[in-house]
């Protein structure tokens, strides 16, 4: 009959709890840093693909390059299931139109065919995904090396 020593399991359990507590402290700064990388990548893509256009009308005025300056990173939060998340978005008033597309209307009020959106943030996130995975692997390896 085999006997099992549970003392080793207790030490392992304590070590795993310690690792969990350390990752909570280091997880938010890591996610913030990765969100900043994605924000820079999205802004770079926007500068490359979206023209700077100034609009001056009676009812609406807009300076050139406002969309390019409007990329933001949200707070790093911890969800109910324990994951850390942040969002990258554009704070421009018409940024959703550039992202998702719109149906142009001329000054006479006639609608034209739908213009496709540029999907800047979405494509930047897809492009950033492999780099993010490598950064996560490095982050986990660094945490495990600390212990």
Strands of the widest sheet, in order across it, are 1-2
Q: Note the total helix count.
A: 4
| Largest sheet, strands/sense/barrel | 2 strands, antiparallel
Residue share in β-strands: 5-15%
Oligomer: single chain
User: How much helical structure, as a percent, in the residues?
Assistant: 40-55%
Low-confidence stretches: none
Structural class: alpha+beta
Number of distinct beta strands = 8
Question: What is the overall silhouette?
Answer: elongated
Order of helices and strands: HEEHEEEEHEEH
Radius of gyration of CA atoms, rounded to a whole number? 23 Å
Terminal CA distance reads: 35 Å
Chart the SSEs and their pairings.
Blueprint: H1 7-49, E1 55-56, E2 61-62, H2 66-69, E3 71-73, E4 77-78, E5 84-85, E6 88-90, H3 95-100, E7 101-102, E8 115-116, H4 120-146
Antiparallel strand pairs: 1-2, 3-6, 4-5, 7-8
Offer a few descriptive terms.
4 helices; 147 residues; two-stranded antiparallel ribbon; alpha+beta
Describe this structure in words.
This protein has 147 residues and is α+β, with helices and mostly antiparallel strands. 54% of the residues lie in helices and 12% in strands. The protein contains four helices and eight strands; from the N terminus they run αββαββββαββα. It starts with 6 loop residues before the first helix and ends with a helix.
